[in-house]
Amino acid sequence: MNPFGEPTPRTGSAASRGRILRLRDIALTRIQPDGRFELRVPAFEVARGEFIAVTGESGCGKSTLLDMLALVLRPDPGGRFLFDVDGAGQDIGALWEHDDEPGLAAIRRARLGYVPQSGGLLPFLRVRANLYLPPRLNRQRGYRERIERQASELGIDGLLDRLPSTLSGGQRQRAAILRAIAHQPALVLADEPTAAVDAARARHIMASFQELARRQRTAIVLVTHDEQLVADACDRHYGFSVTASDERHVVSTCRRLA
Questions:
Q1: The domain 15-256 is classified under which CATH number: 3.30.930.10, 3.40.50.1000, 2.40.40.10, 3.40.50.300?
Q2: Which of the residues in the chain have pLDDT under 50?
Q3: CB of 93 within 8 A of CB of 81?
Q4: How far apart are CA 216 and CA 29, in angstroms?
Q5: Are 36 and 248 contacting, i.e. CB atoms less than 8 angstroms apart?
Q6: Tens-digit pLDDT profile for residues 158-176
Q7: Which neighbouring-strand residues pair with 43?
Q8: Model confidence, pTM
């Protein structure tokens, strides 16, 4: 049996490549002034080194899903939310149930990377210090040479001593991507990371992002409204179907498309 309580998978399946995240029958309900919004996730899984695309129109719940995967938003009770990197398997639902914030924070710090739409670099730190911050927080060693090399591959090695405010939108996004993988996390979550750049630059950034992550066997879950950007590159593709029983009750369901 694997950490997910299932028989050992066949060679070639997602789990045999090192499945690290699995959601089953998860829901998250938000009560808002204008009504009730429900996000439902019947099935969602991520394996080591995979590139998972999540697409949909504005307001369908893409960012809500990402924040739930980032362990920031607490799902409703029930379902299965499992995270496994080292074979031990961690029941995220149980951590939420017991209000184990230290346990959740430890996973966020060591196992997850995040690329927000705005880049999210700390404005008072130079780019180099921003990139060094995640491995320093995790007390890692020997990261400087690797990060300097990756900065060169992303074309930002000449920007390391500058403040984020002096960078272009594309430069900030490349720095944010590198910061997200600097501590070699198991999973990187990216929220529209190429929204601020043109199509050609977006494709270049995506290719570089995927290559760096693949070398580290880091999985990527990327949220975007641009299906063309990810259609031919992703290992799996999830989307949303939205239904409304009335104007005040909207249900958005995330399902695998391909």
A1: 3.40.50.300
A2: 1-4, 7-16
A3: yes
A4: 35
A5: yes
A6: 999 999 999 988 888 889 9
A7: 24
A8: 0.87
